[in-house]
Structure to design on (546 residues):
């Protein structure tokens, strides 16, 4: 028989997290700090709206780009919260999670050989999505001494004639790093100078602590160069609803919508109705969840400090990224030993790029009791190496 | 800092000063001092737990009693509220707006015990002009905690 598979797909590396997940799932009594989704239930008023939509029989396709009502609310929200203005009619498409937005943006913009700059450590899907779109991923290894921010110098050094898109994954999964307005202004300057586009993945935009997220789309002359990826999963604890959106200049958004139309048709109708309620009335819920995350973040930072584990203070998302280099083990080895000895699952930093070596991603989308128990075990674990 | 501490212990009074300090990024000694001060000032009036007695062998009944009373000259409702509050059988006393004056919540071993308390202690009080006793059939939520919640965690253990 002929080889049924595409060589391009075969060459794509499976996610490093997947491997670890298989081990953990065989250990029912393990405590996991490896989850990348909120521990909160979707706020009840949003769920209720989803149920109500079903009761009313809202079970048909919506328009390809998504409910007009929802697109209008999202664009209002982006202006209100982040001072970035996109037109709901031509510059907004509702997607199946932020992940679809990433995929269709890259497919809409890349020709074979175009280079996409990806700062790592980062979320696992950028590299494979670029490869699937026939682009060439160019990795920038972010540095701990810069608290895993992207600097203009690092960006400049990675740019070639073929560079087309720069991915900005901030607030960052897995490091929790954010980019300040000053950081972004320097990046924007480089983007304009080299005539590039930015894909700004702002899925964690609402989850920042002590300072507000700044969208690069709000900086002068950046609207036409920025594709914003966002969604409802993290801010409103709606991961399972599979709903995200992309905001992009009309010329790009129209092509993204075309791909979306043929591949997906439209995002789940029921989720879209629930999401209208989320954007309209969800600010209070976000505030409450952010307060809880912030308490846990403080708690983790304090506990790591007491344990003598080095960790820079992250101001976004719900992850901390402690350094374990002093224990003389690779991330994966450390994580595996921790799992087998103490039954605590964390994700090795290398799952998010080679420069994650020597780090762990610890999620604080867990209750304080769970965090306390897990950190107690980690403390016990590292005691043997002191 | 007070509001931050109160918000935390309102949800979980078992948190130690050390935990609270870590969670709000303050000094442990400062948090402990603030807790002590608030206890002294009666901002924090006590620490209790939420128990679903239905899951135990102990049988309890809870009743909500509406009381209509005649306020007393010079004292308003306060004096009568004080007298009602003094009974250890009485769990909660609220002054209400609307059709009746006091909402009194009572816990007793049996319905008979509660009825007896109402008829022999509350109803005969001079200022009380009427009572209506409602027994609780099932508790679903108390102090913001769902008692019927048995939902399991369905999140996958490791996700990117």
């Amino acid at each position: 028989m002929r080889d049924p598979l595409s060589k391009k797909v075969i060459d794509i590396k499976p996610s490093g997290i997947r491997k670890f997940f298989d081990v953990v799932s065989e250990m029912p009594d393990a405590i996991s700090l490896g989850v990348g989704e909120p521990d909160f239930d979707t706020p009840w008023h949003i769920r209720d709206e989803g149920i109500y939509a079903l009761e009313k029989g809202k079970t048909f396709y919506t328009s390809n780009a998504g409910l007009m009502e929802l697109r209008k609310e999202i664009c209002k929200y982006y202006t209100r919260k982040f001072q970035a203005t996109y037109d709901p009619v031509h510059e907004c498409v509702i997607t199946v999670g932020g992940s679809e937005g990433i995929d269709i943006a890259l497919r809409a913009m890349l020709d074979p050989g175009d280079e996409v700059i990806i700062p790592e450590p980062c979320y696992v899907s950028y590299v494979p999505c670029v490869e699937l779109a026939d682009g060439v991923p160019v990795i920038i290894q972010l540095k701990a001494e810069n608290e895993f921010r992207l600097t203009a110098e690092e960006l400049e050094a990675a740019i070639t004639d073929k560079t087309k898109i720069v991915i900005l994954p901030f607030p960052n999964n897995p490091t929790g790093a954010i980019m300040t307005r000053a950081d972004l202004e320097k990046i924007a300057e480089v983007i304009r100078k080299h005539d590039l586009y930015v894909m700004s993945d702002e899925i964690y935009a609402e989850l920042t602590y002590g300072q507000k997220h700044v969208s690069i789309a709000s900086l002068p002359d950046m609207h036409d160069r920025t594709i914003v990826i966002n969604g409802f999963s993290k801010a409103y604890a709606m991961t399972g609803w599979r709903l995200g959106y992309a905001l992009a200049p009309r010329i790009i958004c129209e092509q993204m919508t075309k791909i979306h139309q043929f591949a997906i048709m439209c995002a789940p109708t029921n989720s879209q109705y629930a999401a209208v309620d989320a954007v309209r009335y969800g600010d209070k819920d976000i505030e409450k969840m952010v307060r809880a995350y912030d308490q846990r973040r403080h708690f983790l930072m304090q506990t790591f400090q007491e344990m003598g584990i080095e960790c820079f203070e992250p101001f976004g998302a719900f992850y901390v990224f402690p350094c374990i280099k002093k224990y003389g083990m690779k991330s994966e080895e450390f994580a595996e030993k921790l799992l087998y000895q103490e039954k605590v699952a964390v994700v090795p930093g290398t799952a998010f790029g080679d420069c994650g070596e020597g780090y762990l991603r610890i999620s604080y989308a867990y209750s304080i009791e769970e965090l306390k128990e897990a950190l107690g075990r980690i403390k016990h674990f590292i005691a043997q190496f002191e | 800092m007070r509001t931050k501490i109160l918000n935390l212990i309102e949800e979980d009074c078992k948190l130690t000063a050390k935990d609270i300090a870590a969670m709000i990024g303050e000094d442990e000694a400062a948090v402990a001092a603030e807790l002590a001060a608030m206890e002294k000032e009666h901002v924090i009036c006590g620490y209790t737990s939420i128990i679903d007695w239905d899951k135990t062998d102990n049988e309890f009944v809870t009743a909500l009693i509406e009381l209509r009373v005649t306020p007393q000259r010079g004292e308003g409702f306060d004096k009568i509220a004080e007298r009602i509050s003094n009974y250890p059988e009485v769990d909660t006393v609220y002054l209400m707006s609307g059709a009746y004056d006091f909402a009194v919540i009572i816990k007793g071993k049996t319905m008979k015990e509660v009825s007896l308390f109402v008829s022999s202690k509350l109803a005969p009080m001079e200022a009380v002009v009427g009572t209506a006793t409602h027994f609780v059939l099932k508790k679903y939520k108390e102090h913001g905690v769902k008692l019927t919640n048995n939902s399991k965690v369905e999140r996958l253990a490791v996700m990117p």
